[in-house]
C-alpha cells in the first residue's frame, strides 16, 4: 500500500487515489457513525461500479489505511522547543483533527500507524524526546500516552455522536430532560446520597474541570517525572 500506487487501466473516469481518499473522508465526516460503503463512495464520485475504486485502493481495508494516514497528516509537533511543547502540540493538533473526523479514532485503534504521515509524525516527536536519553520504550510510551488521550477522547466523541443520532437527542438539554425523571427517582430513593448531591448541584458542570487541554497538561506533568 505504502510503496507504490497501482497504475489503473485506461478509463474515462477522472479518478486518483488522492481524490478517492478525500471523497471518502468527506463522506465519513457526514455520517454520525463514520461508517461508509464502497457503493455509496462510488456513487458520490460518479463511478458506476465500486469495483473501479479497488484499482486505486486495493480493498476497503486499504482505503481505511489511506484515510487514517490522511488524518495523521493533520497532526503536528512543535520543533526545537523541547519535549513538552512538542507533545502538547501533538495532543492539541490531534484533538482538533479528531473533532473534525471522529471516525478516525476508531480506525486508528484498529491498525498500526505505518503510513508515511504517521511515520513522519512519530519521527518528529521522537526527535524532540531524543535529547532526554530515555529508554526506547519510555520514549514511545510518552508519545503513546498523549495519542491515547487523543484517540480515547475521539472514540468517546464518536460513540456519543452515534448515540445522539440513534435516539434523536441532539443537544445537552435534550439529554438532561430525558434523564431527569430517572435522576429524580434516584434522589428520592436516597440510596446514593453523594451522587444525588452532585446531580442536584446547579454548578456541577461549571466550570468544566476536565477539558481536553487540562487533562493533557495533567498527563504531561506526570511524564515530566520521567525526564529527571
From TrEMBL:
Gene Ontology process terms (BP): negative regulation of DNA-templated transcription
Alphabetical keyword list: Transcription, Transcription regulation
Matches recorded under InterPro entries: Homeodomain-like_sf, Repressor_TetR_C, Tet_transcr_reg_TetR-rel_C_sf
Domain Tetracycline repressor TetR C-terminal: 81-225
Highest taxon of source: Bacteria
Pfam families found in the cross-reference section: TetR_C_1
Name of the protein described by the UniProt record: Regulatory protein TetR
Organism name: Pseudofrankia inefficax (strain DSM 45817 / CECT 9037 / DDB 130130 / EuI1c) (Frankia inefficax)
Amino acid at each position: 500500500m505504502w510503496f507504490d500506487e497501482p497504475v489503473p487501466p485506461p478509463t474515462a473516469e477522472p479518478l486518483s487515489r488522492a481524490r478517492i481518499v478525500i471523497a471518502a473522508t468527506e463522506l465519513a465526516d457526514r455520517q454520525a457513525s463514520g461508517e461508509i460503503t464502497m457503493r455509496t463512495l462510488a456513487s458520490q464520485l460518479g463511478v458506476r461500479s465500486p469495483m473501479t475504486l479497488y484499482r486505486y485502493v486495493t480493498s476497503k481495508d486499504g482505503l481505511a489505511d489511506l484515510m487514517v494516514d490522511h488524518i495523521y497528516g493533520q497532526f503536528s509537533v512543535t520543533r526545537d522547543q523541547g519535549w513538552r511543547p512538542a507533545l502538547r502540540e501533538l495532543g492539541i493538533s490531534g484533538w482538533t483533527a479528531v473533532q473534525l473526523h471522529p471516525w478516525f479514532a476508531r480506525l486508528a485503534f484498529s491498525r498500526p500507524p505505518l503510513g508515511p504521515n504517521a511515520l513522519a509524525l512519530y519521527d518528529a516527536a521522537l526527535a524532540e524526546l531524543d535529547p532526554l536519553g530515555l529508554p526506547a520504550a519510555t520514549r514511545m510510551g510518552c508519545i503513546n500516552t498523549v495519542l491515547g488521550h487523543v484517540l480515547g477522547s475521539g472514540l468517546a466523541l464518536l460513540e456519543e455522536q452515534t448515540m445522539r443520532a440513534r435516539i434523536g437527542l441532539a443537544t445537552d438539554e435534550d439529554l438532561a430532560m430525558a434523564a431527569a425523571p430517572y435522576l429524580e427517582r434516584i434522589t428520592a430513593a436516597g440510596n446514593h446520597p453523594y451522587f444525588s448531591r452532585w446531580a442536584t448541584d446547579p454548578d456541577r458542570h461549571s466550570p468544566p474541570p476536565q477539558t481536553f487541554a487540562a487533562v493533557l497538561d495533567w498527563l504531561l506533568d506526570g511524564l515530566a517525572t520521567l525526564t529527571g
